[in-house]
Design goal:
Largest sheet of chain B: 6 strands, parallel
Radius of gyration of chain B: 19 Å
Mean pLDDT of chain A: 86
Mean pLDDT of chain B: 91
CATH topology of chain B: TIM Barrel
Shape of chain B: globular
Strand order of the largest sheet of chain A: 2-1-5-4-3
Helix content of chain B: 40-55%
Oligomer: heterodimer
Number of helices of chain A: 11
Strand order of the largest sheet of chain B: 5-6-7-10-11-12
Number of strands of chain A: 12
Structural class of chain B: alpha/beta
Structural class of chain A: alpha+beta
CATH topology of the largest domain in chain A: Heat Shock Protein 90
Largest sheet of chain A: 5 strands, antiparallel
CATH architecture of chain B: Alpha-Beta Barrel
Low-confidence stretches of chain A: none
Radius of gyration of chain A: 42 Å
Number of domains of chain A: 2
Order of helices and strands of chain B: HHEEEEHEHHEHHHEEEHEHEHEH
CATH class of chain B: Alpha Beta
Number of helices of chain B: 12
CATH architecture of the largest domain in chain A: 2-Layer Sandwich
């Protein structure tokens, strides 16, 4: 290389280094470097491209100067291993080493771009990767010359050094802005997706709980119909009697009044059952609020009593007077209790009538974190069977013919969501006891 | 207003007197805006300190030495820097909507800042005991609440200003910053239902301020593919000042998603010449060749004074340009046989 040419190249490199320190933004810097590299006429085109992570692994020009903007718009470079990745622009990204074409007319690796390149007067080209130590910008600085064999070893070394300095300057300019923000947004997106997954799970659990409530009430339909039919029959009979009395010349108004009071009472009784069914079938969950466990128990009894009576089951209640108030969803807690009572009734269906005794007991437990309300449902039925207890709370596990096996699983998830505990024990004599423990309101 | 704000900052007038000036300016803006015949109006952001930082103006947990934004004419705007958490808005946009609504007789569009713009306020070296993730989470929550309240209070559309989109490519040509911006803004937009998003829009422009812009040199081709990944249904796209509008329209046609409505900029606020209705009509007719007319609308390229100290345009010029937009859009509508 002539001294004159070496001088010119050194001047160009000094101008580039000055730009490294003066540029206010990455784009400004890249453009300035390209402008400087073509300024003295040694190169026809200078451009800088970044490798994309798209399916085609494109090399996207981000700055260019000189003669050939339309060449870059028409050319498609890739850093992948296929034909479009063989040009220096892509090969240097892929290999991390300088790549060059001494003669565009004859080099087979440049054949896809040859015609356009020759039309622009390019005879040789070179790409140096934007790498500095461990930092890889995944890009290249590209130079095109009108001379063949323009890029001898010293030129390659010069421009590889410039690319290293340029890489360091770009990293400093980026100041990790994108890295920092990307990591923050990525973490936020992950936490947002966890939140959405939890919401979706909660929604699914709420819907499943609703479905099982509907199914439970379906099982109770016959008994509940009977429960409602009784007051309705009494209302009809009393109403007819009243009509009959009112036809008399001197109606016995005292008796009529007394009968109308009975009609009103029977109507209230039927309405109470229907009202509890409607509340129980409510689709949406309600916000947790203070619940009296004794009220929860009493709220379920009108629904389950007829079924117990139908199977000749005697219900015994033993409720502690000082049960702590708990925070919860009253309907969901009633669902758990109803499920346990129905299971107990089912377990006793095949046992001798004199053994059909169901006990609902509530107690207070004083723990380190305060009082807990514990409700136990004790039956004298067939028990868990061989090793059945380990899977009792698994979804789809059932011992009932035609059972879905979701009741206990959903009950446990409901109690878990109330920060409580649901578990089962085998009774010393017959049957089993299910225990629900809920923390008192703090 | 500018003198009033200066007096307030100098302690010469009270907050109450400043609010009275705001109300008066908003009332005047709305009256004049409605007089242009525009079917949708704004309050001209008369009471905002700037389009990007109005919500945090006056917070005590800010320092003035944040990210500098340089404009092509050499002037620089410096964003504030958050110095401590937790982050909360001081004056969200629905407060401005509350002031404007009583004066308005036609639908009001309400502009809000974007999460991505506010993300630039967190310092590079972090804040002790307040991580970037915590900050971004707070921004998302604040912005969601702000948009929700604006929708609830009857804003016709809530427009998120995303002027830093194009700027991000200047700052980071790898476009990772842009992708993070889009992802962050989507974290806000995804909190709204599809129906709600019909009333949410995104505005993009190269950041006009005074007589200049901060990122007009960034090619739209770098931005538009990512822009339409935003889960908004309305896009207010600067176009009038583009040197090659047809090329941009082709890009929009390629990248806009089904159902997204495109409001093309037909007025260039930086151009001192007032466009004629004929100019506007031609721009609309050109856009109609690339965007289905049932998804096409018109807008101004940008606000006429996004910062409260910007005196580069007069109110008379601004309203003359808006009148041209309204008249030109109506003219184009007739020519397209839509009336």
């Amino acid at each position: 290389m002539s001294d004159r040419r070496l001088d010119r190249r050194l001047q160009t490199l000094y101008a580039c280094i000055e730009a490294l320190f003066q540029a206010g933004s990455e784009q400004e810097l890249l453009q300035c470097i390209c402008d400087t590299l073509v300024a003295d006429g040694e190169f026809l085109l200078a451009w800088i491209g970044y490798g994309e992570n798209d399916p085609g692994k494109a090399v996207r020009p981000v700055a260019q100067a000189g003669h050939g903007r339309d060449f870059l718009e028409g050319a498609t470079f890739s850093w992948g291993g296929e034909e479009r990745g063989q040009a220096p622009a892509g090969a240097a990204i892929r290999t991390g080493k300088a790549c060059w074409v001494d003669d565009i007319r004859t080099d087979p690796s440049f054949s896809p771009w040859r015609t356009a390149a020759l039309a622009h007067g390019y005879a040789s080209c070179m790409a140096v990767p934007l790498i500095a130590g461990a930092v890889d910008l995944h890009g290249t600085l590209n130079l095109y010359s009108a001379e063949r064999h323009a890029f001898e070893q010293s030129a390659i070394a010069h421009f590889a050094g410039l690319a290293t300095c340029l890489t360091r300057a770009v990293v400093a300019l980026r100041g990790h802005l994108a890295d920092d923000l990307t990591s923050g947004v990525t973490a936020l997106r992950a936490s947002e997706e966890r939140r959405r997954a939890q919401e979706a799970l909660h929604q699914a659990q709420t819907e499943l709980a609703h479905v099982t409530r509907v199914m439970t009430l379906g099982e109770l339909a016959a008994s509940i119909a009977h429960e409602i039919n009784q007051p309705l029959a009494a209302i009809i009979a009393d109403a007819n009697a009243c009509l009959h009395w009112l036809d008399a010349a001197r109606p016995p108004l005292d008796v009529v009044r007394e009968t109308l009071v009975a009609i009103a009472n029977d109507s209230d009784r039927a309405a109470e059952v229907i009202s509890r069914i409607r509340a129980f079938l409510s689709r949406s969950s309600v916000p947790h609020g203070p619940c009296d466990p004794a009220e929860v128990i009493r709220g379920v009894l009108p629904l389950v009593h007829p079924e117990l009576r139908r199977h000749g089951i005697i219900l015994e209640m033993s409720l502690a007077a000082d049960l702590p108030t708990v925070m919860g969803d009253r309907i969901q807690l009633q669902q758990v209790l109803l499920n346990l009572l129905m299971n107990a009734a089912e377990a006793m269906r095949e046992v001798l009538p004199e053994r059909r005794r169901l006990v609902v007991r509530s107690t207070v437990e004083h723990r380190d974190d305060g009082p807990w309300a514990v409700v136990a449902v004790e039956d004298a039925g067939v028990g868990f069977g061989n090793n059945g207890d380990a899977r009792l709370f698994d979804a789809f596990y059932t011992t009932k013919p035609g059972g879905l096996g979701m009741g206990l699983s959903i009950s446990r998830s409901i109690i878990d969501a109330h920060a409580g505990r649901l578990w089962a024990t085998t009774n010393p004599g017959h049957g089993a006891t299910f225990h629900v423990a809920l923390p008192g309101m703090r | 207003m500018i003198a009033g704000l200066r007096d307030f900052e100098g302690g010469r007038i009270s907050q109450r007197e400043l609010h009275a000036l705001h109300r008066s300016a908003i009332q005047d803006t709305i009256e004049r805006f409605e007089a242009t015949g525009s079917p949708v109006i704004t309050d001209g952001e008369q009471a905002k300190h700037s389009f990007a930082t109005y919500a945090i103006y006056g917070l005590e947990t800010l320092a003035p030495d944040g990210v500098p934004i340089s404009f092509a004419d050499g002037h620089i705007r410096i964003l504030p820097r958050v110095t401590a958490g937790p982050f909360r808005y001081k004056t969200p946009a629905d407060v401005y909507l509350d002031i404007a609504r009583p004066y308005a007789h036609v639908p009001l569009k309400q502009a809000v800042s974007s999460a991505s713009a506010l993300s630039l306020l967190y310092p590079q070296d972090g804040i002790r005991d307040y991580s970037r993730q915590q900050y971004l989470q707070a921004v998302v929550v604040e912005l969601e609440g702000e948009i929700r309240r604006c929708l609830h209070k009857g804003a016709h559309v809530v427009q998120m200003d995303f002027t830093e989109a194009r700027l991000s490519i200047r700052l980071d040509p790898t476009r990772r910053l842009l992708e993070s911006f889009v992802d962050l803004n989507n974290l806000v937009l995804e909190r709204f239902s599809v129906d709600e998003r019909q009333r949410i829009g995104v505005h993009t422009c190269p950041g006009a301020d005074r007589h200049s812009t901060h990122s007009a040199e960034v090619d739209y081709a770098e931005l538009l593919p990512s822009l339409f990944e935003l889960r908004a249904m309305n896009f207010y796209v600067q176009l009038a000042s583009e040197p090659d509008r047809e090329r941009v329209l082709k890009l929009i046609r390629t990248h806009a998603k089904d159902g997204q409505r495109i409001f093309v900029g037909v007025i260039d606020p930086l151009d001192p010449r007032v466009e004629t209705p004929e100019d506007v009509s031609e721009r609309v007719l050109q856009a109609a060749q690339y965007i289905p007319v049932d998804r096409l609308g018109t807008t101004d390229d940008c606000g006429f004074a996004p910062f409260s100290d910007d005196t580069s345009r007069t109110r008379e010029t601004a309203f003359a340009k808006i009148r041209a937009r309204v008249a030109g859009t109506a003219l184009a509508s007739r020519r397209l046989g839509l009336d």
